Amino acid sequence: MKKWEEIIREKIDEPSGNLPESVFEEFHARLEAGRSAAGGQAGSRGAKRRPLLWALAPAAAAALAAVLLLRQPSAPQDAVQVAPQSAAPVAVTSTPIDPVQSIESTGPTDPVATVRTPRFVPHPIVPDVEMQQPEPSADDTESIISAEPAEETKEAGPSDEAADIITPEPIPAVSSFKPEGPAAKPVTMKFAPAAGIVAGGGLLAAILVPLLESGLQMSANTLPANDFTFDGGRWGAEPPDMSDRPLGGYEHHPALFKGGLSVGIPFSDRFKIVTGLEYSRYRSDFGWHFSGGTTVGEKRQVVRYLGVPLRLDWSLARNHMFDVYVGAGAQADYCIGADLIDSRTEEAHRIDAVGRDGFVFSLLAAGGIQVNVNKLIGLYLEPELVWTGGKPTKAEENYYPWYVNGLLPGPDNTKLQTYRTEHPFMFSVSTGLRINLGK
Amino acid sequence: MCLNSGMKKLDEQELARYCSQGDRMAQDELYRRYAARLETLCRRYLGDEDEARDLMLETLVQTLDRIGTYRYIGEGSLYAWIKRIAVNKAINRLRRQRWRMVPLDPLVHDDIPDPSEEEMEMVPPEKLREWIGALPDLRRAVFNLYCIEGHSHKEIAGMLGISERGSTSVLAKAKKQLKEQIKDYLKTLD
Asked: A59, A220, A232, A396: which one has the fewest Cβ atoms less than 10 Å from its Cβ?
C-alpha cells in the first residue's frame, strides 16, 4: 500500500500543462541576451555574476603560483630539481592525467628532460641514503631524477618509465622518497577558530570600551551637597588633614560597558539556551568637599566584573544572516578587580577587590539581533533590562565619600557602589561574539 | 528531412552534445522537452507562478551555459541534472530573499490519520500543487525536499541553514497542513 506522500510525488511530477508561446519567446530573448553578453557564446546572465569574485580568482591563482614558485624546500633533495634547458623549448601537453611529459632529444648524448610532475610528496631524505645529483651547470643538459620511489619504477613498464628517466648516476636500491600517506596530511589548525573567537571578542571589547567611556552618559546621579547626613555612627576614621566638617559630595556613574563571548545551544527550532562569559565595566566618579568650600578629592573608580549569564532565548524571525530574538534569564557576576584613580593626579591604585561582594545575582530580559558571520559564529547586539537585587541598606548608603565606596580604610566593609547599586533596575546594551552550537 | 522531427528523436546524450555545440534547434528541443516539467517543479518550491517561470527560464539558460559539463550516465540523467540546478537555485532564492517568521503556534501534535490510497486517488493533481504552493516558504521547501526529492533531514538542514530538529518539526507542520486540506476537500466531495 502506497503512502500518501508517495502518491503526491507521483501525481504532481507531471507538468500542469503546456506553456504559452510567450514563454518560449522570452526563453529565446534570454539566450540572445546571454550570447551577446558573452560575446556570441550561449552564456549565462552576466548580471548575476559578481565581478569581485571573478577578479579574486586570478589573484588567488597568482598568489598560489607565487607561493609554489618561491617556496624554498627544507632540504635540497626535497624538491624536484629541474635541469637547465637547452635553447629549444619543448612543447608539452597540459593533460593533467599524464604526468609524464614528452621528451625531446637534442642529441645522442644531450637529452633534455622537461619538468616532471612529481607523483608523490617527498619526505625528508634518509641520512644514510645518498642521492647523487649532478650539479647543474650552464652546459649541463642532463635531467635529474624526480621524486619517484623505487617501487614505482619497478612496477611501471621499463619501456615506458625508463625512456622518460635519464639518470647520470645509478639509483639507490632504497629510495629516499616515500609515497604520500596518512602521516603526510597537513596539520589541521583546530585551535585557530577558538583563538579567533577569543581574539575577536577581546578586540571588540578593546574597541568599544573607549568609545563608550568617552561619549555615553547612561545617567548622572548627582546628589545635592546637603544630602549627606551625619548620623553620628558613620564617621569612622577621620580623613587625613581635615579640619573642616564634611559637607557633602557627589556620585556620578556615567558609563557602563558590557561585552562577552556567548554560546547558543538550540533545543528546538525556536528556543535556545544562551550562556557564556560576560565582562562588565562600571565607572563611577566620586567627589567630596568640606565646609571650607574646597573640593577635597575627586576619585574615579573602575570596577570590573566577570559574569555568567544563563538565558532562554526565543527566536522571533531569522534568515541565514540575521536572527531576531527575545530572552529572559539570570546572571551571576563576580568582581575581578577594581581601580581607584585620583582624578587630579591620575594616580591609580589597584585595590584588592576580587570577590569583594561575592556573587552578584541579576535577572535579565533581553532582546537582540544577531548577525551570522557563518554557520558557527555570529555577532550580537542586545539591549537588555537587568534587575540586581541586594540594594545597599540605608546605613551603607550613607557612607562618607572619603571612604570612596569603602575602598579606603573604613570601619565597615561597605559594598562596592556602582551604577548597578544605584540603579538596581537598569538598561544596558551588551555586544559580543556568539558561537552557535548544534547548527 | 524535417530538422525538428530529427531533433525530437535525439536521445539525451546527443541532445546535450548538439546543445553544447550551440545548435539552436537542439536548444529549442531542450526547452520543448523540459520547460513545462521544470516550471511545475519551480512552482512547487516558490509557490508564485511568475517567480516559478522566471526561475525555470533562468535554469534553462544556465543549463545551456554549463551543458559542456554534463556527463550522460543513463536515461533520465539530463532531466535529473537540470532538476538539481533548478532546486539549488530555488533554495538559494528562498534563503536569500525571505525572512522566516518562526511560527508562534505550539509544537505540533499530528493526530490526523494519513489519507488512504483510495482517498488520495480522488484528489486531483492541480489541487495538490495548489496546496503545496500555498504552504509557507519553509514548510514548502522542507516538504518538497523530503517527500518529493527524497533528501534526509540532515541534508535539508544543511541546504536551508536550519537545524535537523527544525527540519523535522517543519515537515510535521507541513504534513499536518496538507492532510487537513485533503480531509476538508474530501468532505466537500461527500
From this structure: A232
